[in-house]
């Protein structure tokens, strides 16, 4: 192959090399669509150039024709690729639909097909020959119709591309014009070259420089690519950004006139672009934005601006920066950011924060935040009050210093780190002044956005008082239980002499008709409680004194005895005593004791002493009197013996009384010694009668004991004493005389003998029968006044019978006589012994 | 001078009358209960009465009171002769109008002195 070095061949070779170089250079940007198009265009150029080089290098016509035909692959593709490139550059990519691309490709493919089939129809070239006038010889052609169709198509596409670029140039802001201008120049090169070729002007008359021109175009684009970051930042993209920015952007010149503004800015100033451009800034924006210092235009400025009213009121953050590029001297870029939503959100946030702040500050519980190490980060007023520190003292203080027990702190940290919280745990803290408080603590971990533990936050409440309260309540419950269990009534009066407390016993004493709880008495005045009329309280003087004590507690306990007559007779000993509380408050306590029974016993003892005294003094009078007379007088023998008899009888009476008193004393001391025997009852009765019968001549003592009566088990002396007492009483209380019957019968079922002593005397009223057998009791009736007695007899009878495992009871009717009965254990099966006994 | 002696105890009646009758000025009249005493007092019109308190029927205080309220018997001197030694009993006797109070047991000499003393007081 002989390579022909004519200018055409050199141009083609050069253009091929440049195309390849540009492809290599743009290769790394291939991921971008626009660069892909660029690479397609350069490939087409390279193909065209390669075909041209090969055609030049081939000597034969057939080879040259082949390469010419081949070159049309590139010639057809290049204008289409160029148009696509300019459209992409102008951000009109949307027009490059697949259909449009296909339509663009149709004609080049048809051309290609016609070129290759030219031999059959010569639509492209009518004639192709080797022009040997050149050395080396060159191919010469005469063009037919389709060649001109193809040329027209190619020029149309090139023109469209160039116009596209021109439109971009015209609407580009000045800073981008250089870039677009470069592009335009690049696009112009093929035009010039082609024009020169077709017009056959100068040295290009014979040489088609079109491929080289495209190479120049490519080189210019690539230069622009590196010089103006042509492919990095496309002015159109910039414009798109500028236009579509959410923020309003206004460009001001040095005279503060608007030279550009985006859609958002148009909306903000409510002007169309045409109406806004050229207007002074102050006409459209508030004065403070278009400040005089803007003219100086050196530093960036931030400002706030509000536009509109009421519902349309909006707030903008204004960012003003000076423009200082070589292309645009002076002027400012004003960016308006609509901050209304942000401000509203901030306002909401602030309100919310204030709300929680108030919650935090005003909480009555202590709320605090500590670091993980335990240093206080924040604490509310309640927390400060709780610990007794000022804010400055507490913030930064290690919470460990507040723990009364450091072990609690270790437990707390362990628990919260493991569980994430501590709930309702009681921890004792030490306040600044050293006093200790029990706090109920609930705490949780405080985490950062990344989840790391930042510290603890907690809420605590001083429950010292509550604890004390509960202790007091417990103590109080105990006290109440004690007071409720007391046999004594207890009433406590407050300083206003109103009832503060009263137990049920007291209520029952003072208000027997009211069965409601004692608590209902609380708050009642002392006068209501001690109402003399309602419960017939006596004596009035004592009641008056007690009422005084209810309001003014006595210094030392003072006792008064009062009687309540309604609804039943009780005697109360009321002791008023002072109760001094902490703080010097004095209350009056009234302790009430029911002394009815004690008083009854006392009265009976008094009656006994009185009776015993009387009973002792009467025989003593005989003894003393008659003995004195005997000593001092000379009297006849009969008188003397009579007096001696009186002395003797008196002595016997004294001895009997002393015996009774001794018996009672022994019985009460439990020191009665029994000597149990199996006895025949009749014999014991027969022993007793001789002591009784002589004391009376009005009575007839009849013994009615069956001969087969079982023998009894008893102490002979004590049984005798029982019978003596009963027979003595029978005589004493049947002063009109009559028959006294001593009888007995067996109670075989129970293995006993029942002994009966019946008289026909004054009898005993049913209401008196109950108390008959008690100590010192004597029935106080006119009929009994004359009867001598200490009131010990029946007590002795009852005690002795019961000691011998028997029972005693009475059957009597007033004025119809009395029958005393007692039982004794008997030996069953043993009978018929009575006659032998005695 | 008539002295009325009232007691339900036979021993005491014997002792007091034996004591008083030793003095020949005194004429002793006996009564065994209150009603009998009041009847004898108005009928016999004694100067002095020795009166027991504990008796069947009317007791001594009642008898004394009735006596001192009766227009013809009020002038009769009354000396209580009783085994009741408590102050309240004595007080009751004074309230009933008794002129003297002598407790059992007593010395016969003291009884005579008492009678003398009370009767002389009347003469003053």
Main traits of this protein?
heterodimer, A: 838 residues, alpha+beta, Rhopdopsin 7-helix transmembrane proteins, 6 domains, 25 strands, rod-shaped, disordered C terminus, B: 124 residues, alpha/beta, Rossmann fold, 46% helix
Short description:
The complex is a heterodimer of chains A (838) and B (124). With 838 residues, chain A is an alpha+beta fold. Chain A is 49% helix and 21% strand.
Structure description:
The complex is a heterodimer of chains A (838) and B (124). By secondary structure, chain A is α+β, with helices and mostly antiparallel strands. Chain A has six domains: 7-235, Rhopdopsin 7-helix transmembrane proteins; 245-344, PAS domain (Beta-Lactamase), CATH 3.30.450; 363-467, PAS domain (Beta-Lactamase), CATH 3.30.450; 486-593, Beta-Lactamase (2-Layer Sandwich); 600-654; 672-827, 2-Layer Sandwich (Heat Shock Protein 90). Chain A is 49% helix and 21% strand. Chain A contains 28 helices and 25 strands. In chain A, the strands form five sheets. In chain A, strands 19, 20, 21, 22, 23, 24 and 25 form a seven-stranded mixed beta sheet that branches. A six-stranded antiparallel beta sheet of chain A has the order 14-13-18-17-16-15, with helices on both faces. The model of chain A is unreliable at 829-838 (pLDDT under 50). In chain B, strands 2-1-3-4-5 form a five-stranded parallel beta sheet, with helices on both faces. Chain B is 46% helix and 19% strand. Chain B has helices spanning 10-20, 34-44, 60-69, 87-95, 108-123, and strands spanning 2-6, 27-31, 48-51, 77-82, 100-103. In chain B, strand 4, helix 4 and strand 5 form a beta-alpha-beta unit. Chain B is an alpha/beta fold. Chain B has a single domain (2-115), classed as Response regulator (Rossmann fold). The mean pLDDT of chain B is 90. In chain B, helix 1 (10-20) crosses helix 5 (108-123). The radius of gyration of chain B is 13 Å and the shape is globular. Chain B has five helices and five strands, in the order βαβαβαβαβα. The two termini of chain B are 16 Å apart. The interface between A and B is medium-sized, with 30 and 26 residues.
């Amino acid at each position: 192959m002989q390579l022909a070095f004519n200018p055409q061949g050199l141009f083609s070779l050069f253009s091929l090399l440049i195309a390849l170089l540009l492809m290599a250079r743009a290769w790394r940007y291939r991921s971008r669509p626009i660069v892909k198009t660029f690479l397609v265009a350069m490939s087409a150029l390279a193909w065209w150039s390669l075909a041209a080089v090969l055609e030049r290098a081939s000597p034969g016509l057939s080879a040259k024709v082949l390469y010419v035909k081949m070159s049309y692959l590139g010639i057809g593709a290049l204008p289409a690729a160029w148009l696509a490139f300019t459209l992409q550059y102008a951000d009109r990519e949307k027009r490059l639909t697949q259909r449009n691309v296909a339509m663009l490709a149709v004609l080049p493919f048809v051309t290609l097909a016609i070129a290759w089939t030219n031999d059959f129809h010569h639509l492209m070239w009518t004639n192709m020959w080797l022009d040997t006038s050149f050395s080396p010889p060159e191919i010469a052609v005469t063009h037919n119709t389709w060649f001109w169709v193809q040329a027209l198509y190619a020029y149309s596409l090139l023109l469209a591309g160039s116009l596209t670029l021109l439109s971009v140039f015209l609407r580009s802001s000045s800073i981008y014009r250089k870039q677009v201008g470069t592009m335009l120049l690049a696009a112009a090169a093929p035009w010039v070259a082609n024009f020169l070729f077709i017009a056959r002007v100068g040295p290009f008359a014979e040489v088609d420089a079109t491929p080289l021109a495209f190479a120049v175009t490519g080189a210019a684009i690539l230069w622009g690519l590196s010089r103006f970051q042509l492919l990095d930042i496309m002015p159109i993209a910039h414009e798109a950004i500028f236009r579509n920015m959410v923020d309003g952007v206004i460009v001001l010149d040095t005279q503060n006139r608007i030279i550009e503004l985006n859609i958002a800015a148009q909306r903000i100033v409510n002007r169309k672009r045409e109406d806004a451009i050229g207007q002074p800034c102050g006409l459209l924006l508030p004065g403070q934005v278009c400040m005089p210092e803007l003219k100086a235009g050196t530093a960036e400025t931030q400002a706030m601006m509000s536009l509109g009213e009421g519902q349309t009121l909006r707030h903008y953050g204004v960012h003003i920066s000076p423009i200082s590029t070589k292309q645009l001297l002076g002027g400012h870029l004003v960016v308006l950011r609509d901050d209304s939503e942000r401000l509203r959100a901030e306002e909401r946030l602030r309100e919310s924060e204030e709300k929680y702040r108030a919650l935090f500050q005003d909480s009555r519980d202590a709320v605090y935040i500590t670091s993980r190490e335990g240093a206080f980060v924040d604490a509310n007023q309640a927390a400060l009050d709780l610990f007794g520190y000022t804010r400055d003292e507490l913030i930064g203080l290690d919470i460990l210093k507040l723990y009364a027990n450091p072990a609690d702190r270790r437990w707390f940290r362990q628990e919260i780190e493991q569980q994430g919280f501590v709930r309702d745990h009681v921890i004792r803290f030490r306040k600044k002044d050293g006093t200790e408080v029990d706090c109920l603590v609930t705490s949780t971990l405080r985490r950062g956005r990344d989840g790391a533990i930042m510290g603890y936050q907690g809420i605590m409440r001083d429950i010292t008082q509550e604890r004390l309260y509960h202790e007091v309540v417990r103590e109080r419950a105990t006290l109440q239980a004690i007071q409720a269990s007391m046999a004594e009534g207890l009433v406590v009066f407050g300083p206003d002499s109103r009832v503060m407390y009263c137990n049920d016993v007291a209520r029952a004493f003072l208000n027997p008709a009211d069965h409601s709880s004692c608590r209902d008495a609380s708050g009642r005045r002392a006068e209501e409680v001690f109402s003399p009329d309602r419960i017939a309280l006596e004596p009035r003087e004592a009641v008056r004194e007690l009422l005084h004590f209810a309001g003014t507690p006595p210094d030392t306990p003072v006792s008064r005895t009062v009687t309540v007559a309604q609804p039943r007779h009780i005697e109360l000993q009321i002791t008023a005593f002072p109760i001094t509380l902490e703080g010097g408050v004095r209350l009056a306590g009234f302790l009430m004791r029911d002394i009815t029974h004690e008083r009854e016993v006392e009265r009976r003892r008094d009656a006994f002493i009185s009776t015993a005294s009387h009973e002792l003094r009467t025989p003593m009078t005989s003894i003393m009197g008659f003995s004195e007379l005997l000593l001092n007088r000379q009297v006849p023998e009969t008188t003397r013996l009579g007096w001696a008899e009186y002395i003797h009888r008196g002595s016997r009476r004294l001895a009997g009384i002393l015996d009774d008193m001794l018996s009672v004393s022994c019985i009460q001391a439990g020191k009665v010694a029994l000597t149990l025997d199996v006895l025949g009852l009749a014999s014991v009765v027969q022993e007793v009668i001789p002591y009784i019968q002589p004391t009376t001549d009005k009575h007839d003592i009849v013994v009615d004991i069956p001969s087969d009566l079982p023998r009894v088990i008893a102490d002979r002396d004590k049984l005798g004493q029982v019978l003596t007492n009963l027979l003595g009483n029978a005589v004493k209380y049947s002063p009109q005389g009559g028959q006294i019957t001593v009888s007995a019968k067996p109670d075989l079922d129970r293995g006993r003998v029942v002994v009966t002593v019946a008289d026909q005397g004054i009898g005993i009223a049913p209401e008196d029968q109950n108390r008959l057998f008690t100590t010192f009791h004597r029935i106080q009736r006119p009929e009994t006044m004359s009867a001598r007695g200490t009131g010990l007899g029946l007590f002795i009878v009852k005690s002795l019978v019961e000691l011998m495992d028997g029972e005693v009871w009475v059957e009597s009717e007033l004025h119809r006589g009395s029958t005393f009965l007692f039982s004794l254990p008997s030996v069953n099966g043993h009978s018929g012994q009575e006659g032998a006994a005695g | 001078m008539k002295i009325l002696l009232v007691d339900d105890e036979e021993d005491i009646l014997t002792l007091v009358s034996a004591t008083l009758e030793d003095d020949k000025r005194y004429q002793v009249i006996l009564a065994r209960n209150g009603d009998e005493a009041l009847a004898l007092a108005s009928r016999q019109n004694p100067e002095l009465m020795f009166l027991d308190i504990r008796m069947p029927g009317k007791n001594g205080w009642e008898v004394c009171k009735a006596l001192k309220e009766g227009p013809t018997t009020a002038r009769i001197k009354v000396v209580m002769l009783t085994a009741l030694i408590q102050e309240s009993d004595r007080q009751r006797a004074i309230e009933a109008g008794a002129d003297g109070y002598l407790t059992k047991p007593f010395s016969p000499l003291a009884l005579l002195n008492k009678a003398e003393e009370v009767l002389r007081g009347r003469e003053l």
